[in-house]
Specification:
224 residues, alpha+beta, Glutaredoxin, five-stranded mixed beta sheet, two-stranded antiparallel sheet, globular
Length: 224
């Protein structure tokens, strides 16, 4: 899992536009850390309004709700979304058993910029944009000299122009909401690394494997 570094919570639009390779490289730190202990969070608090449109797939009345906190520059998050999430979707989400919610928890400036672009891509396009960014992480997140131009090349495929790209990264209110969501997750829910999962309010104990998630989800589906 990628651990939360010291992160400047007072980011400004200038900081986001000036994303550097150091920020991208920071996402690779903290790999192979021990799993955090399981923690229960009151479901009502976890599901309270975050100030951002919820990025969710699956029925709202599903018996099980999975909430993931992830950073767009986290290799473990990319591995989950590229390899494990399609299996979770097929097994649980497509059948209406599980509602899956994605929440941003940027570990560095570049992750914050990518999250903003995904949000700016338009209604119904945010989750697909997130999937593309994770699948192409090597093409933009770890480009050492100029990560922002590399990110723009991918954004263009989602319909961004140079103007709309820069306008999005100057959207201070959007950035503030993403950072507020991150702060709440850290301070109230004990999120310290990415990806972190909550299954009906219970923090997943162990790595985000299909087996671990199934072990947490299946008993809840069998209840009542």
């Amino acid at each position: 899992m990628s651990k939360q570094p010291e992160f400047q919570t007072s980011l400004t639009r200038r900081h986001v536009l000036a994303v550097t390779a150091a920020a991208a490289a920071a996402a690779g730190l903290g790999l192979g850390l021990a799993a955090q202990p399981a923690v229960a969070v009151e479901q009502a608090k976890l599901m309270a309004d975050t100030g951002l449109p919820e990025l969710a797939i699956g029925p709202a009345d599903a018996k099980v709700t999975v909430v993931e906190y992830a950073s767009m520059t986290c290799p473990h998050c990319a591995r989950f979304h590229n390899d494990i999430y399609p299996q979770i979707k097929e097994k649980y989400i497509d059948s209406g058993k599980v509602r899956f919610i994605f929440r941003e928890f940027p570990l560095d400036n570049l992750a914050a910029a990518a999250s903003m672009l995904a949000r700016c891509s338009g209604e119904g396009k945010t989750l697909p944009m997130i999937s593309v960014l994770f699948s192409k992480m090597e093409d933009w997140a770890f480009v050492r000299d100029k990560p922002v131009p590399a990110l723009f090349e991918i954004a263009k495929q989602a319909g961004f122009t140079k103007e709309s790209f820069e306008t999005c990264l100057k959207d201070q209110p959007l950035l503030d909401k993403i950072l507020a969501q991150r702060k709440k997750a850290s301070e109230e829910f004990g999120v310290t690394s990415t990806p972190t999962f909550f299954i009906n309010g219970e923090k997943l104990d162990g790595g985000p494997t299909l087996e671990a998630l199934s072990k947490a989800i299946d008993p809840l589906l069998a209840e009542g």
